[in-house]
Amino acid sequence: MTIKKIFLITTGTISLGIGAIGAVLPFLPSFPFLLLSACCFAKSSKKLDLWFKNTKLYRDNLESYVKGEGMTKSVKIKIMLIVTALLGFAAVMMRSILWGQIVITIIWLFHMLYFTAFVKTKTR
Predict the structure, then answer these.
(1) Cα 10 to Cα 102: distance, rounded to the nearest angstrom
(2) How confident is the model at residue 119 (pLDDT cuts 50, 70, 90)?
(3) Which residues pair with 99 in a beta bridge?
(4) Model pTM greater than 0.70?
């Protein structure tokens, strides 16, 4: 087993754990962590990739997005609210660092633009 494969499996597993916790806790987004897990497992092992794609966690959170169908409006809103809260907190913590606030604001704007303009809204 190569170092790259070990790194991808480890990163995917840790990300899966955080994503699973995020599926239960409302303040922790699960989507980006599960997406990272899907990427890591796809590049590291066909067996892990197949296993992950057959989990309820994948089917409930990622499957429609990966298929290009988009996300439900409620999931998009939840993600945008959580990111807004977290980046807002970061901006407050950087109140004396102007460049930090500018970078955080730019990241927030791109995030909002991406989810409103580029991610399809799916109806159930």
Answers:
(1) 34
(2) confident
(3) none
(4) no
DSSP string, 56-102: HHHHHHTHHHHTT--EEHHHHHHHHHHHHHHHHHHHHHTTT-HHHHH
- Half-sphere exposure for 108 (CA within 13 Å, toward CB): 17
The amino acid at residue 100 is G
CB 36 within 8 A of CB 12: yes
The predicted-structure confidence for 77-107, as pLDDT tens digits, reads as follows 888 888 898 889 999 999 999 999 999 999 9
Ramachandran sector of residue 71 (left: φ over 0; alpha: ψ -120 to 50; beta: rest): beta
Find the Cα–Cα–Cα–Cα dihedral 20, 21, 27, 31, rounded to 10°.
Answer: -20
**Tokens representing residue 75 in the block:** 């999931």
Across the chain, what does the average pLDDT equal?
88
Dig out the tokens for 122 from the structure. 């799916």
